[in-house]
Amino acid sequence: MKVDIVDGPIDIGKPGKPQYRTVHKDEKMAKLRVVDVDSPKVGAECPASFKAGVRKAREENRVIKAKD
Questions:
Q1: Pairing with 13, which of 26, 36, 56, 65 sits 20 to 30 Å away (CA)?
Q2: pTM of the full predicted structure?
Q3: Is residue 45 exposed (0-12), middle (13-18) or buried (19+ Cβ within 10 Å)?
Q4: Which tens digit of pLDDT belongs to each residue from 5-32?
């Protein structure tokens, strides 16, 4: 195992193109964003995936509030 000592913040770079997979459960289809933990860009892909999930949840909440 190689250990690098870094002074200062680590540059995580930009995330790659998102990858998705489709899951069928309880007669519903869901599109899941997949993060590869072995990717060298995993440090950038995790926050990007989280932000995408939050963005989608807020969008869905706006639709629900508009129906009220």
A1: 56
A2: 0.68
A3: buried
A4: 888 887 788 888 889 999 998 888 988 8
